[in-house]
Design goal:
This protein has helices at residues 12-25, 30-44, 47-58, 67-80, 84-97, 102-114, 118-133, 144-156, 163-171, 178-181, 186-189, 195-216, 229-238, 249-265, 278-287, 297-307, and strands at 222-226, 271-275, 312-313. The chain is mainly α. It folds into 3 domains: 12-176, Tetratricopeptide repeat domain (Serine Threonine Protein Phosphatase 5, Tetratricopeptide repeat); 177-218; 222-336, no CATH class. A 3-stranded mixed β-sheet has the order 1-2-3, with helices on both faces. Helix 2 (30-44) packs antiparallel against helix 3 (47-58), helix 4 (67-80) runs parallel beside helix 6 and helix 7 runs antiparallel to helix 8 (144-156). The longest helix is centred in the middle third of the chain and has 22 residues, at 195-216. It starts with 11 loop residues before the first helix and ends in a 24-residue tail after the last strand.
């Protein structure tokens, strides 16, 4: 499932145009805004225009937070309007790049699945699961679609359950089991004239829709604000009263990790980190009609950045660098504290 699914009843062409204009005004958020615009264009039926937006983003890949996600979305879109060979080539490239973000894996696997490439879809889901979850004690929420998609495709292929499928069953919260939801025979029951069979199928579909809506309606990540060392020095120099909030950069980083671990231990899901900049914070304070020295503004600023799609999930995926910007693997940096 793509991460920027628009509302079904929107004027997709007009909304895409609005998002493009907004991206021009806020280049720091252009990636997230243009991905949303491309989703609206796909839903409007103008898939070539969506491809143009993907190409616009990919023309400067160094500035993208997640170029593999953009490539995956472009491949999925291309295949839908007849460019199968190009789509396959991009999908092969995404798989070879072994992304550490689950979203590209899900998108390319679902694209293969949608075109009846079930064995390739199963292989792709499995590659993603084994890469991202090999050492995970509790799979992050963002990886659940990988496990559920893999379960679905394996069920359609008639494959037996393995440990990953058992884990998917454990994570699934709907009253209707994954085995029922992913039963290939379900489609036949839709053509039945037996009221009991139709009622059972309606129940399953309602449960599936409820799970889907829950995923779409999840709140933005509970985001903790992170200041890089140079930005924090500039912030405290410009607004000395904030030195009480940030005695040192080292303590600031330690507080972030401690806070996130406490939230995780309390059962808070969907945790993330957003990185602040002084100009952005000053602009936010001005938009709120207050001063940057207002300490209560800091969590509001973090929430706004998260709502703009700027949050990076915590904890980092296996093998990923630490969120603090040190360049060291997370496990050897703040993850080892």
């Amino acid at each position: 499932m793509r991460p920027d699914t628009p509302a079904e009843n929107a004027d997709h062409t007009a909304e895409a145009a609005r998002l493009e204009r907004t991206a021009g005004l806020h280049p720091e958020d252009a990636e997230a805004l243009l991905l949303q615009a491309s989703a609206h264009l796909e839903l409007s039926g103008d898939r070539p225009a969506a491809t143009t937006l993907y190409d616009r983003l990919l023309s400067s890949p160094d500035s993208l937070e997640n170029p593999l996600l953009v490539r995956a979305l472009k491949a999925s879109n291309l295949w839908e309007y007849g460019h199968e060979a190009e789509a396959r080539a991009i999908i092969d490239g995404v798989r070879a790049a072994s992304p550490r973000d689950p979203a590209p894996w899900v998108i390319v696997a679902e694209s293969l699945e949608a075109h009846d490439e079930l064995e390739a879809a199963q292989e792709t889901f499995t590659e993603g699961v084994e890469l991202l979850l090999a050492d995970a004690q509790e799979p992050p929420y963002a990886t659940h679609p990988l496990l559920f998609g893999r379960h679905r495709v394996r069920r359609m292929l008639g494959m037996g359950h393995d440990d990953w499928d058992v884990l998917a069953d454990t994570l699934h919260s709907s009253p209707v089991s994954l085995d029922e939801l992913h039963d290939p025979k379900r489609v036949w029951s839709l053509g039945s004239d037996n009221p009991a069979e139709l009622a059972a199928e309606i129940s399953r579909l309602q449960a599936e829709l409820g799970t889907y809506r829950e995923a779409l309606s999840r709140p933005f990540p509970v985001a903790v604000l992170h200041w890089p060392e140079d930005e924090l020095a500039e912030l405290v120099d410009a607004y000395p009263s904030l030195a009480t909030e940030y005695p040192s950069h080292q303590q600031h980083l330690a507080t972030i990790e401690t806070s996130l671990r406490e939230l995780s231990a309390s059962g808070t899901p969907n945790l993330g980190i957003v990185t602040g900049t002084v100009p952005s914070y000053e602009a936010f304070a001005a938009s709120e009609g207050t001063t940057p020295e207002d300490v209560s503004l800091l969590p509001q600023y973090a929430t706004t950045l998260a709502a703009r799609g700027r949050a990076v999930s915590w904890p980092p995926q296996r093998g990923a660098v630490c969120w603090c910007g040190s360049g060291e693997p997370y496990r050897e940096c703040h993850g080892g504290q």
